[in-house]
Every structure is written in structure tokens, then in C-alpha cells.
Amino acid sequence: MRQNPFNAKVSLMKYEIREIVDFVEKLQKLDPSLEIEFENIGDPIAKGWPVPKFLKSLINEETDREGDAVFGYTHSRGNPATRKWIVDYSKRFSPSSQLDFDNILITSGLGAGISAAYHMLAKGLRIIQPSPSYPTHASMESFAAEKESISYILKPENDWQPDLEDLENKLQENPDIVGILIINPNNPTGAVYSRETLEAMVDLAEKYDCMLISDEIYFRMIYGETEFAQITEIAHNRVPIIVMRGLSKDVPWPGARCGWLEFHNTHLDEDFKKYAESVKKRVLMEVCSVSLPQAILPKIYEHPEFEAWIEEYLEGLSYNINEITRILSENPYLTVNPAKGAFYMMPIFKDGVLTNNQSLEIENEKVREFVESKISEPGISADKRFVYYLLATTGICIVPASSFFSPYLGFRVTTLTRSKEQLANIYETLSKAVTNYVESDKNLAHESLQGRQGLALKELEHGTTASRDVSESI
Ligand SMILES: Cc1ncc(COP(=O)(O)O)c(C=O)c1O
Which residues pair with 161 in a beta bridge? Predict the structure, then answer.
């Protein structure tokens, strides 16, 4: 070609949740008998959840409707009636909101909305990311900025709440940061931020004159007594904020591709208003987002069977979280925080238990050679190494914690498996594999290992495990 069209900045994009599937496909070619348990992707359909009848009926009614309007384009910013409904829906949870329907933007899945928001930032300006982060956010932000992401630490020893001191330091050090991303409830950790945490984050946004971006795609998925505090109420009339929500997680229809952005408090800042308009323009370029889910979105949420569906779903997921927590907490090498929201958990390896000499026994010679060649590639993190061995020996597919733009070594699991028996099997097998893998390093003297675990436990008890310690263990 007369010039190379390849953009080397693609290396800033990481999406191991899907990239690991390429590894799986290669393994299966070498060993067709290997059965895979996909615990990597947050898709309830793939994990056996049936589509509720009321949802299928709504879809059928809409496609059978006379006039066939749903087969055409919608308004570029989204079906106006649906945007008006979104405003009412938002105000049910945040009564002080002054949102109007002109400030709603419906996109083909929230993923598309996230990409548009980062794409339209002025050159060089940054949105600080949580670490760990959902990779679409961190990837699209850093790709737009053409630089590695800037992040604030989430602390596993404090139930994955953000390290506010770290956040403030970063805001002070980096005048290019114009916004703070909050993912709440959180993917990948399953954390839900406390009201105090959110109040402190709004205070920081106000102090440093930044906007907030609050990805709340899991906001209906809260377990037990946990409170989901409405950040729009806390930020009311104080800080510009983009709330990101979507359909994908509330009903088992992620293939609908329907998400939306809400631009709150645009009256507070002319620059924020202009930026919001530019994101709307960017979305215009895509003509419109998928028409069918937009047409029935209000009917889904207003359906008399919707609340019962959500309740049944949360009950099933809550059982899974308790089971996974029970099984993995018994493992001496892991630290496990049960999910308070969303459908993910991120157990982490205790400090110092991973080395580069550990392995699991792979019987199939070709598979063994393949895994050994993959783990000897440069830059393979210690937790990815474990994940590869786990896949090759058990077929369990999880995602390394280090692939979520994080300093922690561990893995993210989904809590979606429908069958209780299958769930118990997967997590008992996973726990055994962790033990066998860690203990396969005969050089890791048992006593010294126990010493390190004791230290890690003490630090966790006293809440002193600094991010420095964790990153040193990579
Ligand atoms: C935190 C978060 N935001 C956004 C998305 C994207 O959702 P959608 O299916 O609407 O593109 C996901 C999907 O897993 C997610 O976990």
C-alpha cells in the first residue's frame, strides 16, 4: 500500500473477555474432546437463562404490527417517545433530576455510547478510569487519547471501594483530566459504592471542576441489604454528569443492542453542554440505533411481569454468589469479596503465591506444547499463565484480573451459571486447580508460603495492603 493504514495504537485496546475465546478455539482444534465452561462473558443466554415469555410476546406483537414502522430507521438520537419514557424512568429513581428528553441519546448497545463519548473528547484530555476497569472504557479512552489510561485504584481490602486519596492525587497531578469514570455496580469486581464514597467522589469532581461519568448498566442488580445510592441526587445542581444505562443486563436480551446516555446538569457548564452536543453529533453519523428494542423498551420495563422476572433473576444470582463465595473462600490462596451487585466477582491470589514455575499436568502432548509456547511469550502475566493452564486441564474459561487494566493478580468470574449442580462442579474444580497449581512449585517452601499468606491476611484485616505491594507481586 502507498501508506501503511495500520494504526499501532491498537495495542492500547484490550478485551481479554473475548480474546480468550481465540485461545479456546485453538485448544479445541488440538483437543476436540475438551469441553468448555464459559465463565468469561456476561451473557445470560449463553449460561442457560430462558428469555421470559412476556419479552418474546412483546417482540412478536411489535414485528406483527401493521405498518411495519419498526423495520425502518428511528430518529438519530433515539425514538422520541422512548426518550421521553427514559426521562420519566430516570426521575423515578432521582426525583430532583432536571433531565429532559433532548439530553437522552440512545445507542446500539451501551458499548457504542461509551465509544462515542470518549471519541469526542478534545485532543489530549482524559477521563480517569477505575483500576480494575471494564476494558471497553479503559481501551476506548486510552485509544482516543493515544496514551495509556490514567487510573485510580479500587481496594480489594476495602470491598473494592475506590482509593479516594489516590484519586485526588491523580486529579492534582494531571490537569488534563476532565472527568472521573465510576462503574457502579462494578464490572469486574461486583462492588457497589457506598453513599459516603459517592459523596466524596462528587466533592472531588466539584473541587477539581470535572464531570462525572457514571456507568450504571447494572443498577437494577443489587443484592441483599446493599443500598444503591443515586449519584444524580448527590450531584444535583453541583456537577455535570453523564449517566450510562442499557437494556442488556436487565433482561436476557443483550443481543438487542440497546443502551443510552443521559446528560444531567447541562445547565451548570457551557463547555459540558457543548461537549454533550458533540457526542450527539457523533451518534448522528451512525444514522440510528437498532429500532426494535427502542420501540418496546418502555413496554418491557412497565410490563406487569417485569418486576417478578428481575426478582427471580436476582434470587438465582444471589444463590450463585453465595455458593461461589463459600467454595472459593475455603481456598487458602485466594481472597474473595462476594459481589454486592452486577454478576461478576474478582477473587485475587494472596500476595506472593504465584510464581513462574507453577503448572498443571496437561495430558495431551500437543496441547501441552501449545500452552507452554503461549506462556513463554513476552509479557504474559502470572495470572494469565494460571488461566491458560486451567483452560487446558479443566475447560473452565475465566479472565485474568490483570487483563482489566489492574495491578491485581487473580481472575474474574461471572455468576450466571443457571444449573446449581454445574455451578458447584465448576467452582469446586476451579478451587482444586488453584491449589494444585500453587502447590506445584516445590521451590515455594511451604513455610514461607504460609508466612506470606499470614502477612497478606493481616494486611487485609488491618486494611493496609497498599497498591504498591500488589503491583510488586506481578
Ligand atoms: C460496565 C459495562 N458497561 C457497558 C457494557 C456494554 O453493554 P452493552 O451490551 O449495552 O453494549 C457492559 C457489558 O458487559 C458492561 O459490563
Answer: 155
- Whose alpha carbon is nearest atom 7 of ligand 1? 110
Ligand 1 centroid distance, CA of 251 (Å) = 13
Q: For ligand 1, what atom is nearest to the CA of residue 218?
A: 1
Strands, E assignment, 203-282 = 211-215, 241-246, 259-264
Q: Is 202 in the pocket of ligand 1 (CB under 6 A)?
A: no
Instruction: Judge: domain 8-47+308-472, CATH 3.30.70.1730.
Output: no
Q: Does the structure show a pLDDT above 50 at 246?
A: yes
Q: Which amino acid is at 159?
A: D
pLDDT tens-digit readout, 430-441: 999 999 999 998
The per-residue pLDDT for 446 is 53
Sign of the torsion angle spanned by Cα atoms 266, 268, 273, 279:
negative
Over residues 447-467, the pLDDT tens digits come to 455 555 444 444 444 433 333
Nearest by Cα to 289 from 144, 110, 121:
110
> Ligand 1 centre from 179 Cα, in Å?
19
CATH of 66-302, one of 3.40.640.10, 3.40.1000.20, 3.10.20.90, 3.40.50.720: 3.40.640.10
Spans of all domains in the chain:
8-47+308-472, 66-302
Is 468's pLDDT higher than 70? no
Cα 366 versus chain centre, distance: 34
User: Percent of the chain beyond pLDDT 70?
Assistant: 93
Q: State whether the beta carbon of 252 lies less than 6 angstroms from ligand 1.
A: no
- Rounded to the nearest angstrom, the distance between the alpha carbon of 246 and the centre of ligand 1 is 8
What is the pLDDT, as a whole number, of residue 462? 42
* pLDDT per position as a tens digit, 272-305: 999 999 999 999 999 899 999 999 999 999 999 9
Cβ 113 under 6 angstroms from ligand 1? no
**For ligand 1, mutation pick of 17, 129, 217 (most atoms within 8 Å of CB):** 217
Residue type, 86: I
Peptide bond into 185 cis (omega under 30): yes
For residue 177, what are the CA distances in angstroms to 114, 123, 164, 238?
A: 17, 12, 15, 18
Q: Which amino acid is at 33?
A: S
Indicate if ligand 1 lies below 6 Å from the C-beta of 188: no
- Averaged pLDDT score across all residues of the chain: 91
Strand ranges (DSSP E) for 124-282?
126-131, 151-155, 161-162, 177-183, 211-215, 241-246, 259-264
